[in-house]
Specification:
Number of strands of chain B: 12
Number of strands of chain A: 8
Low-confidence stretches of chain B: none
Helix content of chain A: under 10%
Strand content of chain A: 35-45%
Oligomer: heterodimer
Strand order of the largest sheet of chain A: 4-5-6-8-7
Shape of chain A: globular
Number of helices of chain B: 12
Structural class of chain B: alpha/beta
Strand content of chain B: 15-25%
Mean pLDDT of chain B: 95
Distance between the termini of chain B: 13 Å
Order of helices and strands of chain A: EEEEEEEEH
């Protein structure tokens, strides 16, 4: 499907940013190129959103709010990206390999179990 | 070693819900309490710094304090507002621009979670639509990973919160004065795993003010010396609230570790010399992590420290003796100066039922404050009598 997140890489020091940087957080220079980030990574840290966030701005999904996991996915490019995490059981998330499944409205990754099918939480 | 600056007055408003008072009223209460404590009047103050996150501009307080014409600078640094104001006041004295300076912080937040706008944080509005503009998620993610990495139990989170409410019960000015047993804290509604409702501070109401003076200008037996102070913003690779990503590889950097090291270096002392400490406890996990980030222990040692009661009022390193943010609530602008007020009170031996070193030959002589705020600011003081 060619789905990927677009970040940037600093042409001076190689630092990878997401979203694309206006200036490099490491070296401060403004020369960067667009970079399509890897679509596979591992869960670096996560929590579970147990209550419905305030609406607005939160848009409650059709069918109502259900608790969902949110965390950071460490990508081989050298950046950890915040994402909603799809899984079949929150317990499977720690250190799990995950795959990008959506880029909008925010990055969304899924565990292999969630990709395989039934009982997905998110 | 000394900065040449002393705290000569410290004052608080009442903390907790006060429907009859505005945020500015709370600031005025705190300022008058601090001036009274110092034995000074508003006309003696030569420069002032202060701020609130959502209750108006501090420099408008002169309307009700007196129009003395002094420079009064507004500060807005999130939870570190009070710390930044204090640092600025201190630097004004050190530069020779003033001999008596005031720092004030105040806020009056509505009930419920903070309501940040993605665009104010440089994020697309989609982060709000997807439910990611929730401050508590950051704390949950950070402490969940920390517990797993360092073998700390979720029970310790409950014990730290239990201590906060127990200390709050001893503090006549605290908002939460009912002790809550650890079992009840652990069994409360989960907000963001592993943190339950009773492990978090709540947005609250309060004002705090500190009067500083050059050591030569004001001599008082109740003065507390500022041995060192530092504020820092985050370095590359830090992990903060509302970060769409964490850049760099390996462990994130810590602004609190950077600033604590700087404050201790200026003060010329080491963490093991501290008798009483105030550490930012937005939630109980933050107190646990900040113990290590500020240099009071190694990562993972907190489990045994807390179990042994070392951070209790009667322990080796009493932490958040006034009940911290958890028992006092979080009026964003005020918290950093409330912490300083508590350490000043402890070092003067005026903390009543919650006084540390009770029954010992010598009272506490060195105290430490740490405030941490979004998006990655830490402010510290090392204080001494």
């Amino acid at each position: 499907m060619g789905r990927s997140l677009t970040g940037s890489r600093c042409l001076h020091c190689g630092t990878v940013a997401f979203p694309a940087a206006r200036g490099c957080q490491r070296c401060g220079l403004r020369s960067a190129e667009a970079l399509e980030l890897s679509s596979r990574g591992t869960v670096w840290g996560f929590t579970v959103q147990r209550f419905a966030p305030k609406s607005p701005p939160y848009v409650v999904p059709e069918g109502g709010f259900v608790p969902f996991a949110v965390g950071y996915v460490e990508l081989p490019d050298g950046v950890k990206v915040e994402a909603v995490l799809e899984c079949t059981d929150f317990a499977e998330l720690d250190g799990a390999d995950v795959t990008l499944v959506a880029t909008d409205p925010v990055p969304r990754f899924a565990t292999d179990q969630a990709l395989a099918g039934s009982g997905v939480i998110a | 070693v000394s900065t040449g600056v002393s705290i000569v007055g410290a004052g608080l408003s009442k903390f907790g819900r006060q429907p009859e008072k505005s945020g500015r009223d709370l600031a005025l209460d705190a300022i008058h309490a601090a001036l009274g404590d110092a034995g000074l009047e508003w006309a003696d103050v030569q420069v002032a710094f202060g701020g609130s996150d959502g209750s108006g501009l501090a420099d408008t307080l002169v309307t009700d304090l007196g129009l003395t014409g002094i420079p009064f600078t507004n500060v807005k640094n999130g939870c570190a507002t009070g710390g930044s104001a204090l640092m600025s006041a201190m630097n004004a004295i050190r530069s020779g621009a003033a001999e008596v300076a005031l720092a004030v912080g105040f806020d009056k937040h509505p009930r419920g979670a903070f309501d940040p706008r993605p665009e104010d944080w440089g994020l697309p509005t989609t982060y709000g639509e997807a439910g990611l503009m929730v401050t508590t998620q950051f704390f949950g993610i950070k402490i969940a990973r920390y517990l797993r990495e360092h073998g700390i139990s979720e029970r310790t989170l409950a014990l730290v919160a239990e201590k906060a409410y127990r200390n709050g019960a001893l503090n006549p000015n605290a908002w939460r004065r009912e002790p809550i047993p650890a079992d009840e804290i652990a069994a409360a509604d989960m907000v963001n795993d592993p943190l339950t409702r009773f492990m978090f501070c709540s947005p609250g109401e309060g004002g705090a003010a500190i009067v500083l003076a050059s050591e030569t200008a004001v001599r008082s037996s109740r003065a507390v010396r500022v041995l060192g102070a530092a504020t820092r913003t985050r370095r590359f690779g830090s992990f903060e609230v509302f970060s769409p990503s964490i850049q760099g590889s390996g462990q994130p950097s810590s602004v609190s570790a950077d600033a604590a090291a700087a404050a201790f270096a200026v003060a010329g002392i080491t963490p093991d010399e501290v008798d009483v400490a105030q550490l930012q406890d937005t939630e109980s996990g933050a107190e646990i992590m900040h113990l290590a980030e500020c240099g009071f222990c190694k990562d993972g040692e907190q489990e045994a420290m807390v179990a042994a009661g070392e951070t209790e009022i009667g322990g080796r390193l009493p932490v958040n003796t006034d009940g911290g943010c958890i028992a006092n609530g979080e009026p964003i602008g005020a918290s950093g100066l409330r912490q300083v007020h508590e350490i000043v009170t402890q070092l003067r031996g005026e903390a009543g039922e919650r006084q540390v070193h009770q029954g010992r030959r010598a009272g506490p002589s060195i105290g430490f404050t740490h405030v941490y705020g979004a998006p990655g600011i830490s402010a510290f003081t090392v204080l001494a009598v």
